[in-house]
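Sample intake sheet
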Amino acid sequence: MLLYVGPGLGGGILAIITGVFITIFSFLVAVFWIPLKKLVKIIFRKK
């Protein structure tokens, strides 16, 4: 059985999926990139 998904529900699903991907990307940046950048800055400042 096929169900009709209107434009409002489709837009909501698209917004939720986009939000999940942006949240995961932001988490990875916060956990890995920012501390790594600070570590590199500390290492190269001492030399």
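Comment: The chain has a mean pLDDT of 88. The two ends are 68 Å apart (CA to CA).
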